[in-house]
User: What shape does this take?
Amino acid sequence: MASYCVSIFHFLLSTVLFSSIVDAAGLIGVNYGRVANNLPTPDKVVELLKTQGIDRVKLYDTDAEVLTALANSNISVVVALPNELLSSTAADQSFADNWVQANISKYYPATNIEAIAVGNEVFVDPNNTTKYLAPAMKNVYNSLTKYNLDSAIKISSPIALSALQSSYPPSSGSFNSQLIEPAVKPMLDFLRQSGSYLMVNAYPFFAYSDNSDTISLDYALFKNNSGVVDSGNGMKYYSLLEAQLDAVFAAMSALNYNDVKVVVTETGWPSKGDENEIGAGEENAASYNGNLVRRVLTGSGTPLRQQDPLNVYLFALFNENEKTGPTSERNYGLFYPNEQKVYNVPLTQSELQSWESTPASSGNQSQAPASSNESKTSVAQTWCVANGKAGEKKLQEALDYACGSGRADCSPIQPGASCYDPNTLEAHASYAFNSYYQKNSRGAGTCDFGGAAYVVTQAPSFGSCEFPTGYGN
Assistant: This one.
């Protein structure tokens, strides 16, 4: 293997690399909306969350009964200051102080409030509350400071993808020019200064439903597909959500906010819809949410932000029967109000081991061309490959760890073996990283190697070498 051979002198790197691996995977939470008249009581909801292994929840208010029920539950909570309070919060520091005292400090730390969403999708609020957003965020922050909570609780505000003026291709992502100076920059400045993150609500379902003639359903559902190449930078995407998020990252980069992180505060797929809501259905909802959970818990970041794990809140915990709008609006829930699952979907790492993606329904598919490996990869399989941008030193160290202490099967990349060619560091490292990843059941964080690797949903191609999967190879 020339200079790519395993070196025993690098085995001691295993401890350092392992610490990076453990911290690499993303986190899954769920949105707990309550626009319904038939939901379980908050104390029963907390028990349901615990039973399902869900330890992160996002609310749309600061309901006293809900916050009390969540006390001492070890569940991290994101609460919200509703849009209708933005103008008062922005205009009056004492109003913000009183709100924080009554809704935050009263419950913290027994209730583990980790963030406050100030408003929700404010840029599309018909009541024109955009101008109040940044001042309201600052006043809430000042109030947290008074109660010595500013280091424990983050402040942000969820934006919809409609805040973007351009999102395709992802590299061309840009914010609406009319929002940049009055709203986007002040918000991003605040997030940077306070060490917080941008909250983003992203729904591939809407994009697919409106463009099913041009968007592959498999691409929208994280299933095996031929991928979409970004004509701007040549990057290839295998999931619509990642392309949407990278459009946000590109928009932030265009304004020089590369250091601000992102959390997906809403994403989901409806289990039922009207006739014109193409793609809505239980099978597709199960595939989207299940494959997304797999992607989050076993992968790294997006192509543009590979180092940043995906942290996602699924929408939503329950079907909510009093929501207005099309049928889909009342059918995003993972659970019925009787606490039964609407469909089978894994929510934890342990559940992933026995879960398989439900095949997409055939009625509304817009199929992408099949790849040569499609027959082998029809059940949302994933692989681990080397990050060529990590640098030769980091790749070599990670390769040595994988083939050494990591106990990956590196015999196929020895001279004369089936995967020795192409004899490049990236190819050999990719094989070793994938072997380690598969041997560890594609567990959370097992494809990172300190940023030297990332997860892909398309079978890697290095010459004639076939990469093993976790399905019996």
Remarks:
- The chain has a mean pLDDT of 87.
